[in-house]
Amino acid sequence: MPIDRLERVNALLRRELAEAFFKVFQSDGLDLAAVTVVRVEAARNLRNATVYLSFLGHQHERGTMLRTIERRRVELQHLINKDLTLKYTPRLQFRLDLSVEKGDHVLGVLAHLDIPPEEDQTSEVSDQRSAGDAGDARDPEPAT
Question: Domains in the chain, ordered, with CATH?
């Protein structure tokens, strides 16, 4: 299977899974606003697919939420089979993805760094330019 087609299938599965979560888990009390389908990696033969999920907040409940989703895996597969036309409906495996949380942490650290105001930087640049302009006026013209 060409890589472009596999990427399109992954994106399609990701979108369908995101919609299927609302249909399957609406009455379970699962905080669906905290669940993000980060990416889907389908096998080249489309028999299996690994779904990477991120949970915003809920640090202590992630394991429970992941097990709840895993228990309802068959229902999710049936919805995907009904909505998509694929040769095989992939068997879903769910994994926790911490990349979004790590990215938020890095952005938080960067936001708290002490960055000097822009006025100080612009005045230093203008001082350097004026000193450079004065030096250029005294330099002889290049020989041609």
Answer: 3-102 (3.30.300.20)
- Mind listing the pLDDT tens digit for each residue in 2-30? 678 889 999 999 999 988 888 888 777 77
Q: Smallest Cα–Cα separation from 53: which of 69, 36, 76, 70? A: 36
Backbone phi, then psi, for 93, in 5-degree steps? Answer: -125, 135
- The fraction of the chain above a pLDDT of 70, given in percent, is 77
Q: Report the interhelical angle of 73-83 vs 3-24 (nearest 10°).
A: 120
Calpha distance 42→91 (Å, rounded): 9
Residue 93 pLDDT greater than 90, yes or no: yes
The conformation of residue 88, written as its DSSP 8-state character, comes to S
For residue 30, the Cα-to-chain-centroid distance in whole angstroms is 21
What is the helix (H) or strand (E) element at residue 95, kind and residue range?
A: strand 91-96
> Could you tell me the sign of the dihedral formed by the alpha carbons of 128, 134, 138, 141, in that order?
positive
Collapsed DSSP state (helix, strand, coil) of residue 53: strand
DSSP 90: P
